Amino acid sequence: MALDLSTWTRPDRGALFVITGASGTGKTTLVKKALQVIPELGFSVSATTRPERVGEKDGEDYHFVDQARFAELVDGGQMLEWAEVYGNRYGTPRAPVDAALAGGRSILLEIDQQGARQVRAAMADAISIFVLPPSFDALERRLRRRATDSEAVIARRLSEARLQIEHCGEFDYLVVNDDLSSAHDQFQAVIVAELRRRSRLDSLVRRFVAGAEDPATPVV
Ligand code: ADP
Ligand code: 5GP
């Protein structure tokens, strides 16, 4: 069943979603579809020092930068968070996240568990989602099928995957990506439910409830 949100009521306040999971668990696949289906959801394009993969676009998948430029961004306080993952540096530029939230829009960060921890410390109401593979065997098959990394890189990603997955207990929501269609449904359901919170829909309450001028007024 396809989710149809084309006529839904916009939330007044956006949310910051943090998506984490070991490489190859399907984060990018889930995120890309959610961005198509859920209106007003934006994606934070990270900066990275890792080389561009075939099919990736600079400025769309990542901002591909060299070590010197990355250090400049960190030193200038322009990163909301950053971490070294699999030998490369990755970071979230702060300005687009601030701009989205200030404008009432929601934004999705696809980052590792070190970065997720930094964001949770800086922004207490961030919503964190961890994507799990059905098993380690399945994860290995997916990394091989993607066929964009060398054998040595795949082996390293698998051993680091176990370290990432050990942190899944720190997250608000867990989505197991076994059957892809079910995983899309679970992932989008979490985002939609968070955007339907009454605390994000003050103007909707005011439209229907006489005297509900104060958004904090409990509505029974
Ligand atoms: P990540 O962003 O977490 O590194 P990707 O979204 O790039 O992962 O997915 C890794 C590979 O696994 C891709 O080739 C993708 O098409 C495939 N994949 C994702 N989800 C599933 C699934 N549920 N079943 C089978 N293959 C999947
Ligand atoms: P990949 O190289 O497969 O695109 O990503 C490798 C890892 O880096 C993934 O775990 C991904 O979530 C993480 N990552 C991507 N962007 C960022 C970022 O901006 N910050 C942090 N901390 N991790 C990131």
Question: What's the structural blueprint in terms of helices and strands?
Answer:
Layout: E1 16-20, H1 27-37, E2 41-43, E3 46-48, E4 62-64, H2 67-75, E5 79-85, E6 88-93, H3 94-102, E7 106-110, H4 113-122, E8 127-132, H5 136-146, H6 151-165, E9 173-176, H7 180-195, H8 202-208
Parallel strand pairs: 1-7, 1-8, 2-7, 3-4, 8-9
Antiparallel strand pairs: 3-6, 5-6
Helix pairs in contact: 1-7, 5-6
The structure holds adenosine-5'-diphosphate and guanosine-5'-monophosphate.
Q: pLDDT average, as an integer?
A: 91
- CATH level-1 class: Alpha Beta
Beta content comes to 15-25%
What is the element string, with H for helices and E for strands?
EHEEEHEEHEHEHHEHH
Main sheet strand line-up: 2-7-1-8-9
Judging from the principal axes of the Cα atoms, what is the shape? globular
Integer count of domains: 1
Low-confidence stretches: none
Notable traits:
220 residues; alpha/beta; Rossmann fold; five-stranded parallel beta sheet; four-stranded mixed beta sheet; 8 helices; binds adenosine-5'-diphosphate; binds guanosine-5'-monophosphate
